[in-house]
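Sample 3 of the quickstart, ligand zinc ion:
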Amino acid sequence: MMCQQCGQKSATLHFTKIINGEKTEFHICESCARDKGELIPGAPNGFSIHNLLSGLLDFDMTNGSSQLQSGLYGIKSTQEVMRCDHCGLTFSQFSKMGRFGCDACYKSFASRLDPLLKRVHGNIVHVGKIPKRNGIVMQRKRELIALREKLQLSIQQEQFETAAQLRDEIRKIEQDLSGEAEAK
Amino acid sequence: MSNHSFMEQPVSDWMRGTGPDSDIVISSRIRIARNLNGLPFPLLATNQQSAESLSRLTKVTESPDFSQLGHFQAISLTELTDMERQVLVEKHLISPNLANESRNGGLLLKDDESVSIMLNEEDHLRIQCLYPGLQIHEAWNEASRIDDVFEAQVDYAFDEKRGYLTSCPTNVGTGIRASVMMHLPALVLTQQINRILQAVAQVGLAVRGLYGEGSEATGNLFQVSNQITLGQSESEIIDNLYGVVKQIIEHEKSAREQLIQQSNTRLTDRICRSYGILKHAVVIDSKEASQRLSDIRLGSDLEMLKDVTGTALNELLVMTQPGFLQHIYKKPMSADERDIYRARLIRDTLGNKRDIAE
Ligand SMILES: [Zn+2]
Ligand SMILES: [Zn+2]
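Result:
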C-alpha cells in the first residue's frame, strides 16, 4: 500500500481514527508521519511523532504487526484529542509515559484500556480485595453472582432443597441491596 | 548528618538469615500500591497537591489505630543526605524512585525495618513488608493489616471494575507485587538455571537478578515476582508464587545433591578457595565479591564452612554496596578506593582482623 500523503513510499503506519463514531483510515509512510508530527495539537514542545509512535508501539501494538489502531491522531482540531478532564493528561502522553495522571484517567481513557490491560494482565476486571467501607455493596453483588451460579447448578443436579435455601439467601441480599439503593 | 538508626544498624529484619527455607530463600517481600481519591498521582501533582496527600496520609500514621501496628520512625526524604537515601535503597527499604524522584516524599520505617511505608512515591502510598526466609503469606497478612488501617481513615482511588487505581497500568487491580529473593548457585553451576527461568516466565512470573540487570544475576541471587495484578485475587497471586518458589527450592536442593555426589572435591575446592580469597584479599571489586560470597554462602548451607553465619553474609551483601561502604568508613570514595575498603570490610567481618599494611 502506498503512502496517502506523498504517494511515493510505501505506507508503514496505519491509523484508524474514529471521531464521533465516524471511522477514517489513514495510511502513511514514516517520513511523512514525522513531518505531520509537528502539527499534533496538545503536544508539549519537542514532542515529536516519533516519541508518540514509540509510546504507542509500547502499549498499542498487537500481534507484533505494524498495524496501529489509533483514535487520537487529530491533526486539525484539539477536540479530536482524548484528554482526561480532571488532570489534563492526553492519551498520547499517557502512552508515552506509561503512567496515568490521576484516578479519573481510568474513566477518561476507558474506551482504550481493555486491550491494553488484557495484554498486560490477561484480564480486565478486578477480583481481589475491596475497601471495606466503600465496598460492602460490591461485595454483596459478588456474593449474589456466586449464589446465582450455585443455584443454577443445584437445579441442574435436581438438589431442590439446596436450591430453595439458595433462593432465600439470594432474595435476602437483593432486598438489602435495593434498600441501600433507596437509602441513597 | 542526622542520627537515623537505619544508618547505625546494618541489620534489617530481612537480613537475619532465619525463617523457613532460609538456606535458599533470603527474603520475601510484599508491596502494595494505593492512591487517594480525587488527587492527581504524584507524577502530575503540583507541590501543593503532593503536600496535601502527604498531610492526609501522615494524619493516619499519627492516629491511635496506627500505633497498634508497632513503633515507626517518620522520616521526610528532604531531610536525608544523598548517602542516607542510598543506604536505604541498598538495604531494600525504599525504592530508587522514592529516593531520587519524589516530591514531598515521606517514609515510615518500623523499628526492626521489616515494614516501610512510602508516601508520594510513584503512587501516593506504598506499603512494603520485607521478611527473612520464605514468609510471603505472613508478609501479605501484615501489609493487608496496615492497608486496612489507612483504608478506614482515607478514601482510596478504587473502581468497581478495575480495582485499586495506580499510576502505572501494570499495578492496577490488587496493586500487589509479591517477590521472593532466592540464592540458586547449584542451578547455575549445573547449568539448569535457564530452563527453570523459562518455565517460571511461562506461568506469569518475572525473574530478575538482584543487583544485575536483566537475567544476569550477580552472586546467583534471583528475584521471582508476580507480573499480573488484575483479574487474580491476592491469595491466588501469592499461592501461585509460593508454589513456584517451593518447586524451585526442590530443584536447587537436588542440584546441590547432584554436585556433592558427582563433584564433591571440586565443589569443596571452589568454596574453600573463595573463602581463602575473601579472608585475605586486599582489593576486590563488587562483581568478584558477590560471586565469592555466593560460594561461601553455599559452603555454609552445606555445612562445609562452620564459622560463617547467614546473617554475616546478608550483612556483607548490603554493607559492600557503594553507599554503605562510604558511610561505614565515613568518607567519599572513588571506585578504586571502594574496592580496597570492600576487601577490608569483608576480611574484618569474616574474622580475619590481622592488620595489613596499606
Ligand atoms: Zn509518505
Ligand atoms: Zn487524569
